[in-house]
Amino acid sequence: MAYEIPASTVERFRRRAAKELRPTLDEFEPTAVRLQRLRLMGLRAGFLVQLDWGNDVPHPALSLALLEESTNASEAFAWLMPKITIDEAQGCWALPIPYEHDDKGRARYAKLSSKEFDAKGELAHRFVVRRLLGSLATEEHLDHICRAHACCNPMHLEVVTLATNTRRGNAARNMSRGQSLLIAWQH
Q1: Taking Cα atoms as reference points, which of 60, 17, 69 lies closest to residue 146?
Q2: How far are the Cα atoms of 55, 119, 120, 130, 184 from residue 41, in angstroms, in the given order?
Q3: I need a surface site. Which of 50, 76, 134, 185 has the fewest CB within 10 A?
Q4: pLDDT of amino acid 108
Q5: Would you state the pLDDT for residue 41?
Q6: Over the chain, what HEC string results?
Q7: In 3D, which of 117, 113, 69, 75 has the Cα closest to residue 93?
Q8: pLDDT < 50 regions, the chain
Q9: 59-72: b or e for each residue (b if 16 or more CB lie within 10 Å)?
Q10: What is the pLDDT, as a whole number, of residue 48?
Q11: What's the gap between Cα 7 and its chain centre?
Q12: How far apart are CA 129 and CA 139, in angstroms?
């Protein structure tokens, strides 16, 4: 971690996150709205980590506070917690995956299975959003702002269309070959 942030900032964020994760709060509000609000809470705390491709993610201390609150808010998340590895530089909540891409260059994502929590081969990042904030519609796709396929931190996810998700993924691959990422991130 590059720098420390005040404990009061982390505690203030923790209290706001606990309110957001309460299951009865905004029960009729769409999951995409709640996910965006959670991400903005982290960004508005003011301590950001700037990623190589220009995006910002909340400070890892805020990600850790959210992880602790999530574990308190959900039995399913308490089950998932021991499987998660925390990246202290960016705040990613990574689940182990054998490799980032398959033999055809397509992205690979961590999957979970649990009869108890109604997850059979469910993508880990969708499982986390479903258990903490509510279900997503099938046409709603989650884009990893951090570009880490193993990450399931909701503050690193954004609900987008399939076209936007595909465009951003292609741009990220092209950037690794030296091309510009600027065009793909524009909506």
Answers
A1: 60
A2: 16, 28, 31, 19, 25
A3: 50
A4: 61
A5: 85
A6: CCCCCCHHHHHHHHHHHHHHHCCCCCCCCCHHHHHHHHHHHHHHCCCEEECCCCCEEECHHHHHHHHHHHHHHCHHHHHHHHHCEECCCCCCEECCCCCCECCCCCECCCEEEECCCCEEEEEHHHHHHHHHCCCCCCCCEEEECCCCCCECCHHHEEEECHHHHHHHHHHHHHHHCCCCCCHHHCC
A7: 69
A8: 1, 179-185, 187
A9: bbbbbbbbbebbee
A10: 80
A11: 23
A12: 15
Structure confidence by residue, pLDDT tens digits, 40-67: 888 888 788 777 666 788 888 888 889 8
Task: Give pLDDT, residue 1.
Answer: 46
Q: Determine how β-strand 119-123 pairs with β-strand 85-86.
A: unpaired
